[in-house]
Amino acid sequence: MNNIIETMLNHRSIRQYEDRPLSEEQIMTIVRCAQAASTSSYIQAYSIIGITDKETKRKLAELCGNQPYVETNGHLFVFCADLHRHQVIAEMEGQDLSPAIESTEKFMVAVIDATLAAQNAALAAESMGLGICYIGGLRNQLQAVTELLDIPTHVMPLFAMTVGYPLQESSQKPRLPIGHVYHQEKYNQDKQSYQQQLQEYNATISSYYQERTQGERSDTWTGQMANMLSKPARMYMKEFVEKQGLNKK
Ligand SMILES: Cc1cc2nc3c(=O)[nH]c(=O)nc-3n(C[C@H](O)[C@H](O)[C@H](O)COP(=O)(O)O)c2cc1C
Predict the structure, then answer these.
(1) Mutation choice for ligand 1 from 71, 72, 80, 134, CB with most ligand atoms inside 8 A
(2) Predicted pLDDT of residue 168
(3) Nitroreductase domain: from which residue to which, for each copy (predicted)?
(4) Which helix (H) or strand (E) holds 47?
């Protein structure tokens, strides 16, 4: 096994960090690695906002649902799908590019690009011995986030990522059985084997939680998912995305 694969397979989210900033060199390496990710048709439709200002971090922590590690970390990155620069290009090239920029397809392209860049950043950070945690809580109150960070139209903040020197030894969360996510040749729609695998996975997850919480928690994964999905969240998103001038047709 090489070092990169070892780092990937060792991933776990880290939610407690030393109050010690990353160096400029570390930050730039992480961003360069993010930029090295593949990008659809070379479109590079994303931006990364680095946050060091303590007050901005404090406000973001609050907006993200009072997640303390959004405030205390080595560095905070905000990843955005970004077609704003392509609107600037429209002006430079004297063309109306709005129909494409505002389409669902290009919105998806930008989200995919930003996510690929983010995972490269995560891996780069982890390979340096740093810990990371994605923060989808950023989407709790996007109007306030866009105002706080001065984000223009055609830009959609997707998630933040905390990075820093780990202060915790967290255990790894077991993933679904590989045959459940990797289909060979065709999508496997055999519900019986599907449910059987999920039952087995539930047993694994229950004992994982029991061990981690000294018996206090024993949730199953399907129970967790049903509970989460029974409460639709952030239902303002469609309207917000359209207000940002994205995913309109
Ligand atoms: C897009 C995205 C958003 C996430 N948002 C949060 C978040 O707001 N707060 C948090 O503590 N963890 C967040 N996570 C981390 C997940 O909870 C975590 O990756 C998952 O439970 C699996 O655990 P692991 O990363 O330790 O393997 C997020 C992960 C992703 C990919």
Answers:
(1) 134
(2) 86
(3) 10-165
(4) strand 46-51
> Looking at the chain, how many residues does it have?
249
CATH superfamily name and code, 3-171: NADH Oxidase (3.40.109.10)
Task: For 19-66, write each residue's pLDDT tens digit.
Answer: 999 999 999 999 999 999 999 999 999 999 999 999 999 999 999 999
Q: Which residues of the chain have pLDDT under 70?
A: none
Instruction: Indicate where the chain has its CATH 3.40.109.10 domain(s).
Output: 3-171
Residue 94 Cα, ligand 1 centroid: separation in angstroms? 42
Q: Mind spelling out the 3-state secondary structure of 194-210?
A: HHHHHHHHHHHHHHHHH
Say if residues 73 and 168 touch (Cβ distance below 8 Å).
no
State the distance from the centre of ligand 1 to the C-alpha of 132, rounded, in angstroms. Answer: 9
The residue type found at 127 is: S
152 lines ligand 1 (CB under 6 A): no
Instruction: Classify residue 114 by burial, with Cβ atoms within 10 Å: 0-12, 13-18, 19+.
Output: buried
The finding on whether 46 has its CB within 6 A of some atom of ligand 1 is: no
pTM of the model: 0.97
Alpha-carbon distance of 237 to 158, in angstroms, equals 11
CB 68 within 8 A of CB 16: no
